[in-house]
Design goal:
about 10% strand, about 110 residues, single chain, Rossmann fold
Length: about 110
Amino acid sequence: MDDDPLILLAVGGMLKRLKCDICTADNGGAAVEEAVGRNKTGGNEAKKVDLIVMDANMPIMSGYDAASNIVGQLREGRLMPLDIVCLSAQESALHEELCKSSGMEYISIERE
């Protein structure tokens, strides 16, 4: 889930090489809709999302807010289990804390 089409293409390409089926969203609101639509408790297990790779800074709804929304629904038992990872070029203690407090695992990629 990212608003940058090049990042979606790059990360999607890597995941496809690992034989993963992928779906994309270009804003936080769409990410929530995709997760909820595919992971409703009692829904189609074959369409279930197992992992969300989320950007923190997206339009409509931030990745932090999208993750918090999804995690809240997971805790309420409304969604089948999934993991959320924040893949980011940002490196700061605040960003890492925001990721973790919203329910995302944090992975930083250093740009040179």
